[in-house]
């Protein structure tokens, strides 16, 4: 009989033996580390993460033949009939202890096979803290920029950062840090996008259109500059240009005629020479950002089609007042030139095709620069109807500057192109 408070030699030796036991990992892997029993380990791990006991049963439904055979080998019994497979975690725990594979039972086996199990609450807190650290640089930058506050507040709701980072805060952290650094530099007039990316991010291609950072940055730049929503290469160029950055400074051009220049730069002198000769001038975005001429005029006429410029050059030559052509949808160079002219005090007068595409182009331009209609309203359309030659096709659009124009066009069902009203436009362009 053992005296109270004392431990028999046999009990002490058994305890010491248990304490010196280690996990027999090779046997454990053969027994439980198979693909057919991965579901069992996963269910046990989830219960451990939630702080639940392993003295429970788990069920797999439906269970395949291989999974049923693996459970039979593990427990030495045939699975019960039915679509599901039920296993007692307590029985597995006892088996591991009895076979001296894992002295700590199933919990120790799960850890040995899959790594330490963090309580779910602690894991969530850790992940939330990781996301907070990832956002910290961007949050600090947006806090000091009032124009970015609303954009940043709405960013989590879009799920954009998580999608672009694969829902991994460790991937998001450097991306958001680079974004904060880029925004810290903006606006930065006259800077090439790749040069800024190389200097700030250490990678000249970091802001290329296919990079996640560029997707986030374009949204932030829109919020910072008020640039409109859109898509496509030209739209991206215009958004970057609104912050002073240019992507491709040579392919974006604008057609002009009679545009006054000055003698303070090569571009200004060229414009003066071409104006005196009555010849059109094509300006690149590079010229407008690196050697920008001073545009000084009270009124600047704007048209949609190059045919208007050609006709004005033929008939008016040096006598043509300043005229700019968007050549369809206005590009970055055209918007840059028109915005600078408007900022210098010029009144912009615009004319385009009376068709649905023309209205959309005019609406886009109106959202980017202020202009007034130049024979481009419901009264002008009605007056031009006798010259109309083709049906009005395509998806209808509104005219943001004239509430009656779109309805009148839809009722008439005909389009009127600029080339058909040159007799109305050219007299206005004569000095």
Please, could you describe this protein's structure?
The chain is of the alpha/beta class. The chain has three domains: 11-117, no CATH class; 124-246, no CATH class; 253-429, Dna Topoisomerase Vi A Subunit, Chain: A, domain 2 (3-Layer(aba) Sandwich), CATH 3.40.1360. It has 21 helices and twelve strands. A six-stranded mixed beta sheet has the order 6-5-8-7-9-10, with helices on both faces. Mean pLDDT is 89; it is low at 1-7 and 16-20.
Which regions have little confidence, pLDDT < 50, spanning 5+ residues? 1-7, 16-20
Tell me the β content: 5-15%
User: What's the N-to-C terminus distance?
Assistant: 125 Å
Strand order of the largest sheet: 6-5-8-7-9-10
Strand count, sense and barrel status of the largest sheet are: 6 strands, mixed
Q: Indicate the percent of residues in helices.
A: 40-55%
Shape: elongated
Q: Give me the Rg, rounded.
A: 37 Å
CATH level-1 class of the largest domain: Alpha Beta
Query: How many β-strands, per DSSP?
Result: 12
Number of domains: 3
Mean pLDDT: 89
CATH architecture descriptor text of the largest domain = 3-Layer(aba) Sandwich
How many H/I helices?
21
Within the CATH hierarchy, at the fold level, what is the topology of the largest domain? Dna Topoisomerase Vi A Subunit, Chain: A, domain 2
Q: What structural category characterises the helix and strand content?
A: alpha/beta
SSE inventory with pairings:
Elements: H1 9-20, H2 25-32, H3 38-49, E1 57-60, H4 65-75, E2 85-88, H5 89-98, H6 105-114, H7 120-143, H8 146-158, H9 160-164, H10 169-184, E3 191-192, H11 193-201, H12 212-225, H13 233-242, E4 245-246, E5 253-257, H14 266-277, E6 281-284, H15 285-290, E7 299-303, H16 306-315, E8 323-325, H17 332-343, E9 347-351, H18 356-368, E10 372-373, H19 378-384, E11 390-391, H20 405-412, E12 414-415, H21 422-429
Parallel strand pairs: 3-4, 7-8, 7-9, 9-10
Antiparallel strand pairs: 1-2, 5-6, 5-8, 11-12
Helix pairs in contact: 3-6, 5-6, 7-8, 7-10, 8-12, 10-12, 12-13, 13-17, 16-21, 19-20
